[in-house]
Design goal:
Layout lengths: L1 E2 L2 H15 L3 H20 L5 E6 L3 H15 L3 E7 L7 H14 L4 E3 L13 E5 L11 H13 L2 E5 L20 E7 L15 E7 L5 H6 L4 E4 L1 H7 L14 E5 L6 H13 L4 E6 L4 H7 L4 E4 L17 E4 L7 H13 L4 E3 L2 H8 L11 E3 L3 H8 L5 H15 L1 E5 L5 E4 L2 E5 L11 H14 L4 H23 L6 H6 L1 H10 L9
Parallel strand pairs: 2-3, 2-5, 3-4, 5-6, 6-7, 7-8, 9-18, 10-11, 10-13, 11-12, 13-14, 14-15, 15-16
Antiparallel strand pairs: 1-9, 16-17, 17-18
Helix pairs in contact: 2-3, 3-4, 8-14, 11-12, 14-15, 15-17
Bound molecules: ligand NPW and potassium ion.
EC number: 4.2.1.136, 5.1.99.6
Subunit structure: Homotetramer.
Protein name: Bifunctional NAD(P)H-hydrate repair enzyme
Length: about 500
């Protein structure tokens, strides 16, 4: 599903009005009616007090429509106008009048902090103060009112986005943003829902189809793409009946050092579970028995050094290579890594200490095979690209880094992101249980396994991150978060593949 900027949402809005011969007031009615339907379906007529806070723009207009519809369906509603500007939108004013016609009373005006109303704790709050039109800092009394709303701890539904959030930068005051239990957002997800600094303002997001112009959406390239079951299944490559293990490649996992052989065992096992036809593992001598015992399906090549890798030599042409897990940063290993990069032309994934070596020796970046996949967690990323001011700058820096080095970067985290040149893909499956030792080694193994089967590097990165998160979610459904360990993720890769086809009916109408 595409992710649009605020400007692109406005353009989609205009294309829709033009092509469907709708007025903006009719589009607002359509969008807000869907929000009402969601609330009505959940509440089913319950006599719970509902407090709706509206701004003076179109987000406020949406709030007024929801208010009118709730009132005509017998709900107990109080409507407030957070009067932060005299510059009221046309559709706000039209719905303001319609609400008065329906209820015979004007909504309650809030003009300062003192006007903030009494609200019973069991109430529901609907937040329609600001939508995607916020473009400057909040005036102090509005910021204070938002903070007061947060202290109430009422169940809160935000319309389109939690008020106080910009769509393209982090808020000046992190507390002056609505903390929503759910955000009902129009047509397409917004990038802020997925970033570490802005994603915590809403517990849940529901994207509703308000019928915006399909052609416009298909033809406009968004600021990013959210990878869901539909996108993932479209990347899947079928296995042919008359195929053999050679069809699916012979990958090589290079890593491990004394005490860290487990990392490369996990990666190799994950590559095989993802469908690589054959897998070899390159380890120091001390890893030989461990690998042969832990993973009889793998072949093992050993370095002459007992405890660490000091020379990377192998006598076959791997279809894909994953390197770095548990490899350490010993000088001898750095040398071996450098001469490996000098000659390697195979599709490559670099993880863990491989990334740390690159960060310490940036000249090695020039030696990467085209479209090499780097899989840093935030700390490793910081070593590679240095500090960033906020999540938006981080994305821009990674895009430049990707362009400069012709590489694909996976920023690992709660919503892992895949960046290649100017393209951004957001993955939002996975769970906090996956923040556990070896989880990253498994991801590298999955991606190497996909590369080995002929997936393009970009597809392997996107699909790999999705499968990894999906397998982790399947474990968490059975065992919860705490007990989840990396081997469990490997054990559920098979189910993650099966799950793809259970979900394939889940078609994205915006495609
Ligand atoms: N296609 C769609 O997506 C659809 C969208 N719809 C809805 O429209 C919403 C966007 O509406 P919107 O453009 O009127 O902006 P909104 O967020 O209501 O803000 C109001 C105005 O406040 C102003 N302002 C900004 N910052 C300020 C500040 N700090 N302090 C004071 N004032 C400030 C600024 O105006 P300015 O003063 O800059 O002229 C801004 O315009 C969207 O989120 C969705 O709910 C649906 O109805 C239909 C389909
Ligand atoms: K809002």
């Amino acid at each position: 599903m595409k992710i649009f900027s605020a400007k692109q949402m406005q353009k989609a809005d205009h294309a829709t009005m033009q092509n469907q011969q709708l007025t903006s007031l009719e589009l607002m009615e359509r969008a807000a009616t869907q929000v009402f339907n969601i609330i009505h379906n959940k509440l089913n007529g319950a006599a719970v007090p509902i407090h709706i806070f509206c701004g003076i723009g179109n987000n406020g207009g949406d709030g007024l429509v929801v208010s009118r519809l709730l009132i005509t369906h017998g709900y107990h509603v109080k409507t407030y106008i957070v009067n932060f500007s005299e510059n009221r939108s046309k559709n706000f004013l039209a719905n303001y009048d319609r609400l008065k016609e329906t209820t015979n009373e004007w909504p309650i005006q809030l003009k300062s902090e003192e006007d903030f109303p009494e609200i019973e704790p069991q109430s529901i709050v609907i937040d329609a103060i600001f939508g995607i039109g916020l473009n400057r800092p909040l005036v102090p009394w509005v910021a204070q009112s938002i903070k007061r709303l947060n202290t109430l701890r009422c169940f809160t539904l935000s319309i389109d986005i939690p008020s106080g959030l910009y769509t393209n930068k982090v808020p000046e005051d992190a507390e002056a943003v609505i903390f929503a239990d759910i955000t009902v957002t129009f047509q397409l997800p917004k990038l802020i829902f997925f970033l570490p600094q802005t994603g915590n303002y809403t517990r849940d997001v529901q994207v509703i189809d308000i019928g915006l112009d399909r052609n416009f959406i298909v033809n406009e390239s968004g600021v990013g793409e959210l990878i869901g079951p539909y996108e993932a299944v479209s990347l899947y490559k079928n296995r042919a009946k008359f195929s053999h293990k050679g069809t699916y490649g012979h990958c090589l996992l290079i890593g491990g050092s004394y005490g860290k052989i487990g990392s490369v065992v996990l990666a190799t096992k994950a590559a095989l579970r993802t469908g690589a036809g054959l897998a070899s593992t390159y380890v120091p001598e001390c890893g030989y028995s461990i690998l042969q015992t832990a993973l009889p399906e793998a072949m093992v090549i050993t370095d002459d050094n007992e405890d660490l890798i000091e020379e990377i030599t192998f006598d076959y042409e791997p279809t894909a290579i994953g390197i770095g897990m548990g490899i350490g940063t010993h000088e001898k290993t750095i040398k071996a890594f450098e001469s490996f990069l000098n000659t390697n032309t195979h599709p490559l994934v670099i993880d863990a200490d491989g990334l740390n070596i690159l960060a310490k020796n940036p000249k090695l970046l020039k030696k990467l095979a085209p479209e090499t996949i780097l899989t840093p967690h935030p700390k490793e990323l910081e070593r590679l690209i240095r500090e960033w001011d906020d999540d938006f700058e981080k994305i821009e820096k990674v895009k430049s880094f990707s362009k400069e080095n012709n590489c694909i970067v996976i920023i690992k985290g709660a919503n892992s992101m895949v960046i290649y040149n100017d393209q951004l893909f957001v993955n939002n499956n996975g769970n906090p249980g996956m923040a556990t030792a070896g989880s990253g080694d498994v991801l590298s193994g999955i991606i190497t396994g996909l590369l080995s089967q002929g997936y393009t590097p970009l597809h392997a990165a996107i699909f790999g991150v999705y499968l990894h998160g999906s397998a982790g979610d399947l474990v968490a459904q059975k065992n919860g978060f705490e007990a989840l360990i990396a081997s469990d993720i490997i054990d559920h890769i098979g189910n993650a593949f099966l799950e793809l086809f259970k979900n394939s009916k889940n078609v994205d109408k915006n495609q």
